Amino acid sequence: MELFDSHCHIDFEAFDDDRDDVFARMKQVGVSRIVAVAVELEQTNRLINLVESRQGVWFSVGVHPNHETKQEPTVEDICRLANHDKCVAIGETGMDFFRTRVDAAVQEQRLRTHIRAAHLLNKPVIVHMRDADEVCLRILKEENIQTCGGIMHCFSSNWEAASQALDMGMSISFSGNVTFKRNDELREVAAKVPDDAILIETDSPYLAPVPMRGKRNDPSFVQHVAQCVADVRNMPLHDLARLSTNNACRRFQIT
Ligand SMILES: [Zn+2]
Ligand SMILES: [Zn+2]
Predict the structure, then answer these.
(1) Cα angle 91-155-195, degrees, rounded to a multiple of 5
(2) From the CA of 144, how far away is ligand 2's center (Å)?
(3) What are the tens digits of pLDDT across the range 199-251?
(4) What is the CA(110)–ligand 2 centre distance, in A?
(5) What is the helix (H) or strand (E) element at residue 202, kind and residue range?
(6) Helices (DSSP H) in 15-74: which residue ranges?
(7) Which ligand is located closest to the Cα atom of residue 12?
(8) Any idea what DSSP says for residue 208?
(9) Backbone angles phi, psi at 223, to 5 degrees
(10) What domains can you pick out in the chain, each with its CATH number?
(11) Strand pairing partners for 119?
């Protein structure tokens, strides 16, 4: 069985003491591919060092909607930094009104900039949407995200929002929160997403899935997300693994 963690932050300090062990554990449970996702442009060199020294790791370039930065990224900045054969996506970008460290108008402009860069690069956009469905989905539509494609990462909204994203050709990625006891509605969404649009992720080191909840998350725990999503879709774990891995490879244009 091969699993693909479509969104993690393996370059973060939380893994500095035991990154080799984490990679070893991942391999043991069949997690053979991961995307290390950016939250700031200053991190790009660190991500490039990581992907050039490891197998099965790809990366993205972007600035998180709630990341405070001295200088807003331009289309040119993103295109220049994303010029690497293991850069497979732009983001994470999006809209987040849950934590409003960054002004809404700034988040919106940042999201538009990322999508415009993604069009030029022909790479998918990793979208972070939290408590901002209406404005975020409207911007994705206005910027024609269907042309470059994208991923609704750590999806945590309702079926209405999921179906609007699906209509724009987006993939829907589920993380540890799909396993949380209170999230019945999210599991219903995970049961309904079409086979060709479903992805799984950890968003580690955050949001460890049940039964690891409260611990530091790592990409090996994507097996628990996979098991939960397989269960709600009434499919064997192996089938869900194959499906989501194929979807991720296709979405990130990894052959
Ligand atoms: Zn995010
Ligand atoms: Zn993230």
Answers:
(1) 100
(2) 23
(3) 999 999 999 999 999 999 999 999 999 999 999 999 999 999 999 999 999 99
(4) 16
(5) none
(6) 19-28, 44-53
(7) 2
(8) P
(9) -60, -35
(10) 3-232+243-251 (3.20.20.140)
(11) none
